[in-house]
Records
---
Amino acid sequence: MSVLSKQKVIVAGAGLGGLSAAECLLQDGHDVQIYEQAPQLGEIGAGIQLSANAMHVLNHIGVGEAVSAISVRPGAYVFRLFDTAEIIQTFSLADDHLALHKAPYNQAHRADFHDLLVERVLDLSPGCIHLNKRATGFVETEDGVTLKFDDESSASGDLLIGADGVKSAIRDQICGPVQAVYTGDAAWRVTVPTSDLPPNFIEEVMSVWMGPGRHAVCYYIRGGEILNFVGAVEADDEPDESWTAKFPWEKFKSDFEGWNEKVQTIIDMVDHDACYRWSMFKRPKLDFWSTSRATILGDAAHATIPYLAQGAAMAIEDGAVLMRALQQRDNLAEALKLYENNRIDRTARVVETSDANKKLFHLNSVQEIRDAFANRNEGDDRNEWLYSYNPLTVELI
Ligand SMILES: Cc1cc2nc3c(=O)[nH]c(=O)nc-3n(C[C@H](O)[C@H](O)[C@H](O)COP(=O)(O)OP(=O)(O)OC[C@H]3O[C@@H](n4cnc5c(N)ncnc54)[C@H](O)[C@@H]3O)c2cc1C
């Protein structure tokens, strides 16, 4: 067994990436402590899609069945026109995704999913999450690494993992400050109780509605109790990279003027006082993201616009590959290199494909949309490189 089998690991950030990585490492016998800036644990009230490439890891850490139990398994991925709802292309999910990739495609409520991860990590190591601990930077020596917090306290270990999201302090120290550039796109995020919608409102599928300069996504979560809606619009007003930025409902409504009646119904039924809009920023691709004892994962390393629904999946994959890299090297610096080398290209491809989907989903005319889809098969393409990746078995090179 590798000499790296029992490391003292410090994780900054108890988001979806930090928790799932911690679970992989705890299961592998490492001692893991997690430090979260927030005074309490939780996630926002919106949906998250978890394809097979992420579900393999969730199965491995023992939460797969529980995640499936709180999810909806959509029948298909459906690309529609914004006004008539005509289906332009579709590929099947549900049983076909499971048969092809040996793990399901799930759509869950983020808070439910986060709760399951918290419960699991505390099962594996009671008391390992420390709240109100905002990491400000770290000091690394040959023998160890010390994470500093804004309350003047610190925590020491063998390995530091920065899972501290888009504004990562750990990334800024490892790679130097990176410039965040507004993409020009902002995402409305709302949910509607299914009971507030007309009966059989829309099939249990993942719908992408495509139109000029914007697109919308909707799918059911929490066993079908809630409909999740994301409306991505090109917006040139003052951007704010925050989940909690509220905007007037009237603005939301006018952003989707002329869109299909189902989109109108969803917007009409949302809580008019809970219309959140997240402005999306881009950060440059990193060519490296580790030192000898510190590394980063998830949005800290490779934040992406959500147009492929893979940001959290990439964070979850990262944790599994990091765990395996520690199994395969007996030197920490080499293990971190192995991890990073096996993640940079894949995560960059996800970022690039998400960017390309902005063009594809926001084309200016119906004819352009038809032409673009005539030459592509989204299902075959994604099945071939994206969903088929298994971070637990892929060869690390
Ligand atoms: C509209 C939208 C839809 C999306 N849909 C999907 C989807 O369907 N599927 C998917 O896979 N991905 C999706 N994503 C992407 C996904 O939400 C992110 O990629 C994912 O949450 C990243 O997880 P993370 O743990 O890396 O970062 P975060 O979730 O941001 O977690 C970071 C954690 O670190 C904490 N933290 C921050 N700074 C510090 C600090 N200095 N010290 C200590 N703690 C700190 C934060 O409080 C937080 O708890 C979507 C994103 C958006 C915007």
---
Amino acid sequence: MKITSVSAVYPNYNNTPPSWRTHLWQIVVRVETDTGQVGWGYGGGGKAAVEVVNGHFSEILVGRSVNSTADISDIWDFLYRESIPYGRKGIAIMALSGVDLALYDTLGKAEGKPVAILLDGTTEGRMRCYATGPDTDWYAELGFTAQKMPHLWTGDESIATAVGSAEHARSVLGNDAEVMFDVYMSWDSDIAIRMADAMGHLGIHWFEDILTPDDLQELGTLRSKIRPINTAGGEHEFTAHGFADIASARAYDIWQPDITWCGGITAGQRIVEMAKAAKVAVVPHRGGEPWGLHLIAASECEDFAEVVMGTRAAAGDAMWSGAPEPKSGYIEIGDAPGFGVSPNELLL
Ligand SMILES: [Mg+2]
């Protein structure tokens, strides 16, 4: 089949997502083919990425064949090359991610296969989830056995606050629970070492985003100083080219590419291969959403899927219908073709 149209929209979200950011800026990409097949993808980059898709990618994609995963990989390389002057990272790659995912959804639907099966993976079995957010008691009620809590450094009192939250999580979620911290680039190396010392008795799995993604050398040095706590990061990095820099600096124990930002399934697969060679684990950012889930099911990512829960009271926009929901701390993929989801047309 050949591509007849590619278009992107920035949805009319009503609610601010439960996140560090006031704008998560997720875009929706639609692909249609000459066989009448329609596929949907999810990207980042907001209205600027919409312009990249509608003003550039759509023009050069019409007429291209999409009959195999190899075709999608070739299209990825083509779009990457064409956008080099203004791309390589950031908004252009967030736009490319949406296109790549829409192409995978299209191919999966055309072949009647879930994306994980297209990738020679499996849709069987269930994956453990971790809840991201501060609401430990709610996550315990829902049956989660793993939590990642947000933490921002505000001064020396932050150490006691963090230790108190971790002790509470350990006591509520149990001894076998995984407890992690996402500090969103608000710590420095000295703080990380002090935190690791203060939490030595709590079995913390990882500290995430300790420094900015530009501090790779320092992160590489810090890694051995806070063991056995792991360092995690990568949601702000793009493509296998970017992760090659992370690999050469040995910056993290756990890589966290965001499949809707880093270049889609195509980039995700290349990053997972690179992680294998670097002997590090991959736990995709927002891996409990359909796009990350299919990659986890089809690759050597850890079977550990992030679900951004926020708080009990937080309102959200139901952008996609058909997405699997976590039950008792585990999630199952389902066997619907493509990514198995459709967008809420009311928001488009
Ligand atoms: Mg994070």
---
Amino acid sequence: MVNRKCTLCNNHFLGRVNDRFGVYAHINCVKDKLTYLEWQYCPTARDLIISHLPNERLQFNGGFSHCVWSQRHPAIPANMTLSYFLSTHEDEVLDAIKRHNEATALGTLSIRTASVAKRKAADAARDSFKEKFHEACIERNAPFRSVHGLRKQLCAPLFNLINVPRPEEMVRRAMFAIQHRNAVPDLLRRYVFEECDVTSVQLVTSYANRIDTIAWRYAFRAGSDPRQWVDMAINVKDVQLIPDALKQGFNAARVVRATHEFAADMEYVLSSQINMAASLEDFETRLQHLKTLPLEHADVRHMVTWRSDIVGIAASYKRAMECAGENAYTRFGGKCFELRGEHSAAQDLDTLMRA
Ligand SMILES: [Zn+2]
């Protein structure tokens, strides 16, 4: 076997000729001879160098950099090294560096020009807004003449609600807010003054005092009809059910009314039935059947919480009472809810009595 040696370190080496630089050497020995261009040259000079010299992109410090052979070495031709290239192309390299510096300066200049232009445009827009705002104030005979003057008349939250980038619209909203603010409770100001339409004011003044404040956020919101919430006492159970109903896309006011006669300890049962219902009508049907069950027993409430087939359960309980009497549940427990299929009363009783 031939004892081969690395041309650079003279140690044992059994690899292949490095096809980039044409040397028979360890890869690490080759790397020792290379230099990273990105560290030392601007992009224009780097491009000039790599267009003339063999180079390799190597990973360094997390990024890739172009590497060329740095110093002359007997193992490779002189014209493949950076030191030779610099000695023969000095003017071209200097020229590339100069071009880069000029381009960068121009770039900086254009960024500066752009930011000046942007600031001027912003100033002009602000001046134009002020002017139009002032004109709109005069035209509408507003009790203020500038944005600054308006700010002094409205509290910050109300100002923010009517603050829009269209001067005429902002003056209209401001005057509307000043006119109606005393008729609208703080909690409903967002509802009324985000759009500033008179219908909202009328709904609030007519119905707010007849709707539980807990329900205001549901009654007075886009797409809701406050009249549906009038004269309805909201309890703790409802507060939990309303979000469930809204999540299902059901009319929340109707859900609250439908569940009103159920006790507060039914909230989990009702909430889970809302989530299982296919529609509001389906939910109302489930409630009708729920009512027929002996809900005074905690076990029964627990059982129906996670059962979807309320209609079947209610039908079974009805049959159990028909064959075993009113106190069927106390006698037979959960078996009263499991009667299914077509059977006679005698057969049902037989099923209940079986262990
Ligand atoms: Zn070596």
---
Amino acid sequence: MPASISDIRLLLRVKQLPQSSHPRRVFITGGTGYLGSSLIPVLLERGHHVRGLVRPTSKGNLPSGSEVVSGDALTANSYKHLIRPSDTFIHLVGVSHPSPAKAAEFRAIDLVSASEAINAAADLGIAHFIYLSVAQPAPVMKAYVAVRAEAETLIRTRRLNATILRPWYVLGPGHNWPYALLPIYKVMEFLPFVSQSAKRLGLVTLEQMIMALVEAVESPVQGLRVVEVPEIRSAQNTPASEVTRQTA
Ligand SMILES: NC(=O)c1ccc[n+]([C@@H]2O[C@H](COP(=O)([O-])OP(=O)(O)OC[C@H]3O[C@@H](n4cnc5c(N)ncnc54)[C@H](OP(=O)(O)O)[C@@H]3O)[C@@H](O)[C@H]2O)c1
């Protein structure tokens, strides 16, 4: 079930788009979180099949309509046999409420789960890996950013066909406080010496982020594609026909 008014609005919008002509089989980790729980209903609405890996304690928290499998995201051997026949792997696991105080947890959870997912996907020859990274470089949250840069390096080393999305902060229900920063961002975007950073580290909405993820699912790449904030922002403006046309 959709979790919020914003999810319902997004679903209504997606209902007006033509169905994807190439339904994907999606394996997703971290699907019970803020982004995953908004993304999964949209993927289902678009006609894709979704299998979500959850830890046993979160079994009831995956949006309905998805196939639930359980395992330990920190040990790929616990779930590797459940990935096939998926052609698309979306990795969303991460420590909740990231802060500089959680540096050790980023390495123990975010990095370990990403490395396990990347190696499992590469070993199985999964057609398309989608990784939710973070905008970089950045002047703050160094440990959080460093872990995601390391995971991106592993994706390159393992030569995965992959889409890496790099938002900085996704605004939405319960994630509203940075709205207060929007006027500061606007000013910075006009100052030549900081405008590139302001754009790279800009805020995106939940709707923009979900549409960028959907576009990634429906436009699998050969090689590597990095999607940064300006491109995430434009994903919601992509006409339905374009989303369908880009489908490989
Ligand atoms: N939201 C943003 O603004 C933003 C911006 C840039 C990057 N990101 C990254 O994008 C990803 C998704 O973000 P989000 O906001 O949806 O995160 P979230 O709401 O905190 O959800 C995190 C997900 O990771 C799972 N998880 C956490 N620790 C785990 C563990 N030890 N073992 C197994 N699963 C675990 C959670 O499962 P449970 O439900 O079982 O706890 C949940 O499904 C994260 O990696 C985040 O760092 C987010």
